[in-house]
Amino acid sequence: MTCLAIDFETANERRDSACAVGLAWIEDGRVVRRASRLIRPPEMRFSPGNIRVHGILPADVRDAPPFPVAMAEFLPDLEHGLILAHNAPFDMGVLRASLAAHGLPVPSFSYLCTLQVARQVFPDPAGCGLGKVASRLGIRFEHHDAGEDAFACAEIALAAVRVTGAESVAGLTRVLPLRVTTLPPGPEMPRYRAPGREGIAGRAALSARRQFADAEVRFMIRGSTGNRYEVALEERPSGLYLRCTCMAGRNRRRCRHVDAMVDGDVTDLISENLADVERLRRLIEDAPAGHRVEPERLRRVQAA
Ligand SMILES: [Zn+2]
Fold first, then answer.
1. Taking every annotated instance into account, which residue ranges of this chain make up the domain SWIM-type (predicted)?
2. Is 188 domain-assigned?
3. Which of 141, 155, 224, 233 has the fewest CB atoms inside 10 Å of its own CB, making it the most exposed?
């Protein structure tokens, strides 16, 4: 089974806006190959916040191949492989959204999130973001270059293998309470249909039920002072809301815990429902144009 770490950078907030990919292959307990490619996103719209993170400009990718071409040589390695990513819901979301945007099937593979691995093997009050874990482990890399990030992700997994005595990266799941997520082959997510005349609220409620199958969605977040807060998704007649139990949330103000869930940042997520974070992202991103469930709307906190 091929084992490789993957990292995507995106041009803007859309998950199908990949502008760079980095990969690092693991064999026999070490990184044996690295690659990175620039990708021309479907829409040449770069958000300043994203540029600040990765430094890639529209001019850098104007002549780069589109996603299917850039990824063609790597997709066979993904098939039936074990994929590693740091904060995997983000990268898996990019992969799936980008394949779907080009009408391509999602290959069947398993993935493991090295953020979850690091939380269990290398916990630290400073958090387990890629840069922080890498620096604690003495892994030298240029953060936010896709190829470098994939390399650091692979090295974190290898360090965890050494520390835990697991026989391989795949073997981590036998020594740690970790789940490997296996994607079924084929187009994976049901897409929204264009909205009718029911209005945003009705659509949002419908889509929330589709996304979450009527289950209560709650995220447990570790606050900066170590307190635990709960962010709950609520359906109201007027739309969807994320409500937090922290002081700001109770005072109906936006808080960083809600922002983190909206952004898909799972650094301080304690609850295990990573899949719900990804589904929330899709809920925000996939709502039909003109009827989008705007993040601002989700961020708004109202009294129950
Ligand atoms: Zn909060």
1. 229-266
2. no
3. 224
